[in-house]
Amino acid sequence: MQMMKWSVMALAIAAATSQMAYAEEQDDAMAAENVSSQAASNGFFEDADLQLKNRNFAFYRNIKNNAPDEQNYRNEWAHGFMTTFTSGFTQGIVGFGVDAFGQYGLKLNSGKGINGTGITQIDDNGEAAPDFGNAGGAVKARISETTLAFGQQRPESPVFATGDARLLPAYATGTSIASDEITDLHIQGGHFYSGSGQTVTSQKGELTTSYSGTDFNTADYIGGDYAFSDDLSFGLHAGQYSDLWNQYYADLYHTWNISDDMSLSTSLNYYKTKDEGDALSGDIDTDAYSAQLSLGVGAHTFSVAHQRVDGDTPFDYLATGDSLGNSIWLANSVQYSDFNSPGEKSYQARYDLDMSTLGVPGLSFMVRYITGSDADGTKADCSANGAFCGAYGKDGDEWERNIEVKYVVQSGAAKDLSFRVRQATWRANKDLGDYNGAAGGTAVDEVRLITEYPLDIL
Question: Any catalytic annotation for residue 260?
Answer without folding.
Answer: no
